[in-house]
Amino acid sequence: MSKEIGTVAVCGAGGTMGAGIAIIAARAGFTTICYDIAQAGLQRAEQQSAAFFARSVERGKMAAAEKDAVLARMKSTTRLDDLAMADLVIEAVFEDLSVKRPLFGTLNAICPPHAIFASNTSTLSITEIAAGSGRDNKVIGLHFCLPAQLMKLVEISPGVNTSNETLASAWAWCERAGQLPVKTQDKPGFILNALLVPFNNDCIRAVEAGVATPKDIDTAIKVGLGYKMGPLELIDLVGLDTQVRLCEAFYPITLDPRAATPPLLRRMVAAGRLGRKSGHGFYAYQGNAMFGA
Amino acid sequence: MRYRIVQHGESRSFPTDDAFLRGASDDGDVVIYLGATLRPDDSKTAVLVELGTECLGVHTGEKAGEEGSNVLGFARYRNGTDDPSALIELVRQPRTPDPAIAAARALFEAAGFTVVVSADQAGRIIDRLVRPKYNAALRFLDEGLATAQAIDMTCKLGLGYRDGPIERIERGGLTHHYDVTQALFETYGTPAYAPARRAVVAKLRAR
Q1: With a cut of 0.85, is the ipTM above it?
Q2: Do the beta carbons of residue A232 and residue A283 sit within 8 Å?
Q3: Does residue A147 sit at the B interface (CB-CB below 8 Å)?
Q4: Which residues pair with B14 in a beta bridge?
Q5: Of B146, B165, B190, the CB nearest to A183
Q6: Which CATH class is domain B127-201?
C-alpha cells in the first residue's frame, strides 16, 4: 500500500554524501533522521548543516526562522531502532555490497512495511543490494551527485523486482524534494559513472602515452567542449584513490578495458599523489590554490 | 606576426571570410597550408599544415621516432557542422624544434585562439578522448539504459557539460562521428573507437 512520505531516514549521514542528502530532505520539509554508526561524524555533519543553512540565510535564499525550522526537523542518532518511523530510508554507507545488503536486511525488521529503501550506490547493482532485504519490491536506486545539497540530478534505478508503485513514489519524492530525477536501468555506473569513469581513465592513459600535458588536455576539453572542469582537474578533486576504487568496482563487472585501472593511476596512488587532498595529483596544490601543472 | 596562407578548397578550421584568413600577408615567417599540398621550406620558422583525421606523419613521413622539423600540424576543433571553436590543437613530432612550436603558438594566440600542443596521434586530444564516450552514449541508447533526453540531462546536470553527448553528436552530424571514429578505429584498432551502430546507419543512408 502506498503511503505519503513524511519521514526520511539517511544512513551514513555522517559522511559527505549522506549529510548532503539529509540537507535536501530537511530543506524540503521532511522530518529527517540522520543515522550513522559514528557519533563524531554526525556531530560534524550537524555543524556543517548548520553552517550551510546559515550561509543560505546570509545569501537571502532562506529566512532565519525557516533555517531554525529546518534544523529542528533533523534528528541525529546512532541507533537503527530510531528509524522505525521512516517512510523512506536512503542509504549512503560504504560502497560495499556486504555492508549495504545486511543494513537493509536489518532495517526490514525495524521499518514499517510500506517504507521504501533507497540506495545511493554509484557502482553496485540495485537488484543485488535488494536481494535478502525482505522487501525487494520496495528497494530502488537513488543516486545523488556530489555535493548533493547543491546538485539537482538524481539517477533513479529500479531493480529487477522493484514495483512500479515504488518507482512512482520515489520519483514523486525526488520532485517534492526539489530534485530532477532521470530514470536509468540497473546497470553498472548507471549513466553518469558509466560514461565518466572510462572517460577519465582514457584521459589518464593519454597523459601516460605522452599525447599532451595534463594542463593541455584539461584546456582542450574545457575550451573545445565547454566543460566547466577539465577531466584531470576533476580526478584530482575527487581523489586518485577514489578513481582506483571506481575502476576496481567497474572492471570486474563490465570487463570493459577502458574501465580497467590505468597503470599510471596505480603508480601515482602508490606514490601518495592522491590529488587535492594530498597536495599533489596531476597538479600540485598549496592549500586550496593550484600552483602549476 | 606575419603569415602567408596557401589554400586549396574549403578549410574546416577557417571557413570563408574568417578573420584569420583576412589577416594573412603575401609573405611571412610562417606559412600555413589549408588543403594545399605541403611544400617544406627550411627558411621559415614554422610551416603549418591543417589536418583532418590524418596524422602529421602522412604529410612529412616518419623516421623511427626521430621525425620532426619546422613542419607542424594543426586543426581548429570543430564538432562536425558546428561552428569552429576557439581551440587550436597544434601537432608536433618528437624532434620538432621548440622555436617552431613557439612561433606557431604565438601566431594563433595573437589571433585570439587558445592553443594546446598534442603529440602526432590520431584524434589528437579531443577526438581521441571524447569519441569513445560518444560511442558509449549511443550504445547505451540502443541498449535501453536510458532515453536520449535522460542521458543528455544527466551529463548537463551531473557533470556540468554545456550539452549532452547525444544532442552534440546529432547536432554535429552522425556521419561526421562515423568518419572520425572510423579513422580512429583504423589507426588504434580498439573496439572503443569502432563507429556506433547509429553512426553506421547514418553513414549508409548518406551514401
Answers
A1: yes
A2: yes
A3: no
A4: none
A5: B146
A6: mainly alpha
